[in-house]
Amino acid sequence: MALITGSLLLAVTACGGGGDGGGKKEEKDGAGKAKPNTPSVAVVEISPKDGAKDVATSGALEVTAEKGKLSEVKVQDSKGNEIPGEIAKDGLTWKPESHLAASTKYKVHATAKDAEGRTSAKDTTFTTLTPKNTFVGHFTPENGDKVGVGMPVSLNFTRGITNPDAVEDAIEVTAEPAVEIRHKWYGNDRLDFRPEEYWKPGTKVTVKLNLDGVEGRPDVYGSQNKSITFTIGRSQVSTVDAKSKKMTVERDGKVIKTIPITTGAPATPSWNGQMVITEKHKVTRMNGATVGFTDADGEGEYDIKDVPHAMRLSTSGTFIHGNYWASASTFGSANVSHGCVGIRDVRGGYDGKTPAAWFYDQSMIGDVVTIKNSKDDTIAWHNGLNVWNLPWEKWEK
């Protein structure tokens, strides 16, 4: 029994010893083939530095890679909104598509890969500057308005803009159905947008103002980030003929009424041109002194405290309005005004059946009133919202 037991132990020992020897050989061979788990040699750099404050809203943010190429860049504000940007074709740089907002904390996460496909990453945060001086753009029309086919988009800035390109890049005006829209500056504080022809009825127009953080002039930054939408109603274009002293009202291309009118007298003729209704007043006061019509004593040549059914056509004081002080025979036979278009009415405008009341009720902000055959010049495009008087080729793409 002792001999048998020893044989068994020898066999077991021999078997185990053979296994140990084979395992050492395999481990040695495997160690010779495996690659070391070394880190990526790619280096990600982010400007501005981590924790930076008072960072400029334009030109300061950039992500670069050395000894590798960028594979992902993600920039978010404190609300989780992502900032769009693009990695360059060579994979070495990333920049944001537009400016950043002011007084905002941003988080940056970027990764890069080296030639072996190994990844390195970097995360930083920074905060943009808080402006001491800001500007906004007051816009026409208002959000949700329904307007006539002649209404342009007009922005009036509270500070003169000396960096117009940056402001233009931060404003987007689109239409549905789509149509080409161009812009034009008047001075350095007004910017208007329009299509080549009047808007088509039913068009939906959207204005996006991404002005927050835009440096419109040295050390003066925009503070708006909002979107407004308005729609175009039916088409109404009325033509005033100063020679025949009649106005033809067209609705969606069809004449719906012809109205006797009076325009500017020979000494004070009306402007010619396409004019847009910008205000409506059931009753308003008109004083000649406010628009330069004064007598020898400096008093207004006229001061009518209750002009009915008045609608503004120009900044300089041109209206189309009800007239109760001229005789009924004047309308359609004589031009007697100081440049306005007058329509027969009653004092107080209480009679809804007068021609002036009818036209007032049928009109909306943005409708077009064209005056022709007057002895005066064509009205300037910036006198009111009368943008249609500037040739299309003079508007910027």
TrEMBL record:
Residues 22-32 have a biased composition (Basic and acidic residues). The keyword Electron transport does not apply. Pathway: Cell wall biogenesis; peptidoglycan biosynthesis; Glycan biosynthesis. Pfam families: Big_10, YkuD. It comes from the Bacteria. GO terms for molecular function: acyltransferase activity; peptidoglycan L,D-transpeptidase activity. InterPro entries: Big_10 (IPR041280), LD-transpeptidase (IPR050979), LD_TPept_cat_dom (IPR005490), Transpep_catalytic_dom (IPR038063). The active site is at 321 (proton donor/acceptor), 340 (nucleophile). Residues 236-372 form the L,D-TPase catalytic domain. Residues 14-39 are annotated as: Disordered. Gene3D superfamilies: 2.60.40.3710, 2.60.40.3780, L,D-transpeptidase catalytic domain-like. GO terms for cellular component: extracellular region. Keywords: Acyltransferase, Cell membrane, Cell shape, Cell wall biogenesis/degradation, Lipoprotein, Membrane, Palmitate, Peptidoglycan synthesis, Signal, Transferase. GO terms for biological process: cell wall organization; peptidoglycan-protein cross-linking; regulation of cell shape. This is Lipoprotein-anchoring transpeptidase ErfK/SrfK. It comes from Streptomyces indicus.
